[in-house]
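Shipment paperwork, digital attachment
Item: protein structure file
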Amino acid sequence: MTSSQYLNLIPNRPPYLWVDDVVDIDDHNIHTRKFIDPKLDLFSGHYPDFPVFPAALHCECAFQASAIRVAHLGVSTGEKVPVVTRADRLKFKRMVRPGDVLDVHVRLQDRVIDVFFLKARILCDGETATTLDFVTTAASRETTE
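Attachment content:
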């Protein structure tokens, strides 16, 4: 899947896009990849003398991968957007540093209408960095006038 194809499926854009490539996608799984650029502005404050990629952004990498997976099912496109409604069993097992590459694996465990139950495993250099379970839903876009 090319970047223009997956960008058509999700609302995220730089500088808050945490997917560089979609490596593989099937009926239940998606594998994305993200290079953690040492030049990211966030490293000037997290932490200047010992830069670490924030754990919350590990989760965001998984959330964005899941949005592509869900949209690929024909959901969350057009009038709906993916939103996270719950995250459980978060485990941060390895620090991620500038220059690292994350392999993000998300599996769709179950679906009830437009509610999706997912499990993520994020690898860095072949080691598990993060695991989490989470739920997303396809929310209707609100129009403001």
